[in-house]
Amino acid sequence: MKTLPRSLADNWGATASERMMSFPCDHYLTPYDVSYFRAVSVQAPAPIVFRWLCQLRVAPYSYDWIDNRGRRSPRVLIPGLEQLQVGQRVCSIFDLVNFEPDRHLTLLLKDKRAQMFFGEVTISYVIFPQDDVRCRLVAKVLVRYPPGFIGTMMRPMLSWGDFVMMRKQLLTFKYLVEQQMGCVTSS
Length: 187
Fold this sequence. Notes:
Largest sheet: 7 strands, mixed
Strand order of the largest sheet: 1-2-7-6-5-4-3
Shape: globular
Oligomer: single chain
Order of helices and strands: EHEHHEEEHEEH
Number of strands: 7
């Protein structure tokens, strides 16, 4: 059994009970070397949070100058992106391998070039409703590092890089969802 995360790079925002839960990604990468957890509370119902997660089909919503070739991730919902099918490309390097509307998206890294650097990666973004107007968005990332020198180099660096990028992603989603709900004012 894997141990619970010990550092900020391994866990940002997820509670101990969330880290103990089973996630859909657990079925797509076994064995794995490490798991990372990222989580945020959102003042919106699960269907709205899920609808924004579907936007990952067209953009990463993290640091666009790094992840999106300088193009800004859309700040409005694009109609039709919620029409999901297993096998669709997500964030340009992942494939959608499983989903449940208003509940979760599970992605698997399929881009061969990205796999050379990051190894095998699967992610589940799971929405846990707290009540009718609040939920938790929890992401679990499983990684099997690439072999050889690259894998050795990635072991100490990947968790911190993922922490920086996914933290920005989840906070961007939180802001956009809550802005849509009227919980925040635009700047």
